[in-house]
Amino acid sequence: MTKYKSYIFLLFLLSSINVTSIAQAINLDSLKNELQRAKNDTSLCRILYLLTEEELNDSIWPIYNQRLNTVAKKNLTINQSEYLKKIYKYYLAYTLTNFASIESNRGITETSIKLNSEAFSIYKEISDKVGMAKTLNNIGFQYSRKGDYTKGIELMSNSLKIQQEVGNRYGEAISYQNIAHLIGMQGDTANSIAYMEKGLAIFKNLGLDVEASAIINNIAVLKTEQKEYDTAINLLRSCIITYKRVNAVDNLCPTLENIGTAFFHKGNHDSALYYFFEAVKYADKHNQVDVYSNSNVKIGEVYFSQRRYDVSLKYTLRGQKVALETGFPDLIKNSSLLLYKIYKATNKSDKALQMYETYITTRDSMNSEKNKKAGIRVGLKHEYEKKAAADSVRAMEEKKIIEVKLQQEKIVKFSLYGGLIIATIFAIFMFNRFKITRKQKDLINIQKTIVEEKQKEIIDSIKYARRIQTSLLTSEKYIQRKLKDLIK
Fold first, then answer.
1. Which of 56, 140, 330, 393 has its CA 20 to 30 A from that of 346?
2. Total number of domains constituting the chain
């Protein structure tokens, strides 16, 4: 049995899985009525955008998308305000992403990459990081289809980084899931499951059952590889119920193929063929060329195991034809290996050798050392970036703490300096006051001395004058004695 894993890639493309993320309550008929009454191009674009998102019919929604593209382009040739230009550029990028989805379903990988790249440039111009992330994811998916897993993982890792930067948990989960696919395609089951579980945890936390089912589907693929067939079948049946309920055809096709694979490995060929034919029917109707090709090859493998080589050859050639037209390395490798076995069993040596050479060449180009190491590198790089981010946050917090401490120290220092300055000024003031007081005291003492000296001089003068006076005047006793003598 071929080991091609029919993983479900969660793309940022227009697909029925995205319907659950948009307001389903919008009535298509009312939107169509609003479309007829649209008074200006901004309203017209908004309605066309909603119709493109809401319409599930693959033959109708592209018509709305084309009209939206035309209106957006027209308005970008007119002199508009920067605000309106940004709106119309967004709608233009959106339509290009949807065109890329159509080309991807047809298996025209290069055109899909070109359209997504144009959309990425516009999203970058208008600084729409979510748009940038989704187109990087889609381009990465296309490169993985070409067998360039290194480029695919690199682009999807860049998408993951942007989703984490903008806090888009939904987009982050999708990126985890798609990186898991590419790692799983190279046989690194442990890393693949680790990334799947990260995406699944986010979707469950967001309450997104359909998206969670996509990851459960992929886990079932790994369970099949681990020969846990009953577990895988039960998981896949639950997914089929969910996808049919919401008409998620893009996810239903690979799920039908996966459950067919689980039944085949279990040995139930009738159930395996039933689901493979169902997968072919849905894939043909909805242009899922990769599922159409691989399911035909798997039908061929069931018949090969039953030794019905003619019937096996018919379906395997049908699958390889599409694989060669689309250039998908996985599909070319698997179909070539089975054709080698068929031709060898039917003794067609030349054709067997040709198919074996094709198988070896394709396998070697896919399993180059560069591709194998890409999954390991992206895991290490992501963990390193997460650690670096955590260290950066921790360093920032420590820096803030240090800054606060420095600020506090600065305040204390300034307060101390301020106190010292005030104390110094006060000391100077007091010293000056002391000097003034001392001078005043000295002056008072001097003045006191002068006054005392003056006072002494005055007293001495008075005493001197009195002595003179006393010496000039006759004493009172002498006068009394003389009077007495006269009286006698």
1. 330
2. 1
